[in-house]
Amino acid sequence: MWIILGLTLTVLTLTAWYFYNKQQQAQTEAHFEQILGLRQLIQLLRQHRRLSHSHLMKRTSHTIPVFHEQEALRQMSSQLVSQVSLEQKPMYRILDQNLQQLCYEWPNYSLSRNQAMHGKSIRHAMYLIDDHLTTSMLIADNDRLFDQYQQFWPVTLNALDTLAQFRATVATFRPGKVNTEVLLHRHLNLLQRRLGQMNLMLSVPGPSLMADQLEQDLDTLLQSASEAHACRLALYKFSLSLSDNIFFLFDAKLLEIAHALAIDDFPTDIPASLVPLLEKSKADATDAEQLKRQA
Questions:
Q1: Considering 15, 158, 250, 282, which has the largest number of Cβ atoms within 10 A of its Cβ?
Q2: What is the pLDDT of residue 275?
Q3: CA triplet 47, 166, 105: central angle to 5 degrees?
Q4: Which residue, 124, 138, 134, is CA-closest to 91?
């Protein structure tokens, strides 16, 4: 009798443990579904900022382009709001409102305001990712992973801040202004250190950035363009590669955490994961245009 009772208790304990772990894994998977959507949203924002920045720099036409990224942003934001838990919906709704305003008002922005408004939404989405990551690691009770991430996160934010300062300096750049050139070099040196720190915090560090080469590239840009507009454009394009490096390292950390928490289907290439959504946006725009012509 005691043996049967003991076996029954053991089976009940194992069953409860199994369903508890299954519930925890389901919660973690739900958090990472949001994390992926937010990271894709950030990528769409970055692509939209590049396209809108290019249009605002030219301003050669009164026609306002409609980028496919805009509709993809709206769709992605609505989807994220619909599937998030009730307690988090207010923060998502604020982000959605900011994105709707951005998509509508960007043609009237100055270059600096365009950068700032995109950056504000990117930062908002980054904080939401941080919230989901932190909750996921607490659910998993993985102290080591949590501590590693807590060291990585502020360095990432500092890198984004330094990049924003670099771009703000680019916006006011004039060839021959020594003080501005010194500021650009200072921001670049600081950003290089941030990127190096992020890289070293990865379990498998990627190839180190060629600091000397970046310095040479910046010097070449500063010396090659004598016209202010052309030089600012070249410096902005240079800053895009710095931004790509930041998010390459951030994505590597996301993938590292996902695998540690048994999320094996997290994509390794965020831009590539957006291709189906952008293709759908293009197809929807084409269909809408055809219906408009037929009307």
A1: 250
A2: 87
A3: 45
A4: 124
The residues near 122 (Cβ < 8 Å, ≥ 6 apart) are: 42, 45, 46, 160
Q: Which residue has the tokens 């390292």?
A: 249
Concatenating the DSSP letter of every residue in the chain gives: -HHHHHHHHHHHHHHHHHHHHHHHHHHHHHHHHHHHHHHHHHHHHHHHHHHHHHHHHH---SPPP--HHHHHHHHHHHHHHHHS-GGGHHHHHHHHHHHHHHHHHGGG--HHHHHHHHHHHHHHHHHHHHHHHHHHHHHHT-HHHHHHHHHHHHHHHHHHHHHHHHHHHHHT--TT-HHHHHHHHHHHHHHHHHHHHHHHTSSS--PPP-HHHHHHHHHHHHHH--SHHHHHHHHHHHHHHHHHHHHHHHHHHHHHHHHHTT-TT--S-HHHHTHHHHHHHHHHHHHHHHHHHH-
In this prediction, residue 18 carries a pLDDT of 47
Question: Measured between alpha carbons, how far is residue 29 from residues 26, 37, 102, 140, 272 in Å?
Answer: 5, 12, 30, 11, 21
Stretches in the chain below the pLDDT threshold 50: 17-20
The predicted structure's pLDDT at residue 173: 84
Instruction: Give the pLDDT of residue 25.
Output: 61
Query: What is the token pair recorded at 37?
Result: 């959507």
**Residue 6 CB-density burial (10 A; 0-12 exposed, 13-18 middle, 19+ buried):** exposed
